[in-house]
Design a protein that fits this description.
By secondary structure, this protein is of the alpha+beta class. The protein has 4 helices and 5 strands, in the order E-H-E-E-H-H-E-H-E. It is about 35% helix and about 25% strand.
Amino acid sequence: LGFNNILTHEEEPNIPQDLPMELRALFQRETQGKKSIELDSIHNVYSDKGNIVGTINFSFEDRESSGTNKLFDLSGPIFETLYSGSVLVIDELDAKMHPLISQYIIELFNNPETNPKNAQLIFTTHDTHLLEQ
C-alpha cells in the first residue's frame, strides 16, 4: 500500500462551522469529553540516489487513496468474520480498489488455512475477472 506503519493519535472532535446552530449545540453536547482517534500513515523519504533518509507522516484520511481507506475500513470486518466464522456482506467489493486486492480478499475466504471456520463472503461486483468456477 506504500506505507510502512500506521500511528494513532487522539484529537478533539471537529465540529463543522457551517452546521446550523441547533446541530452544532447538539454535536457539542454529544461529544463533550470525548476524543476521536486519527490515523497517520508513515512513508519513507528517499534521497536522490534512492536511499531511505527518513520518514514522513501523512494524514491517513486526507492523503491516502480512497481505495487504501476502503481497504483499511474493511480490514476489521474481514478479520472479525474470518475469526468468528460468520458471514460478511459487501456491496461493490471492487469499488475504489485495485483488482488484485479484491482478488486477494476473496482468496482469504477460499483458503482453508486463512478461513478454518468456513466464514462466508457475499459481495456484489462489476469486475467479471473476479468471477470464476
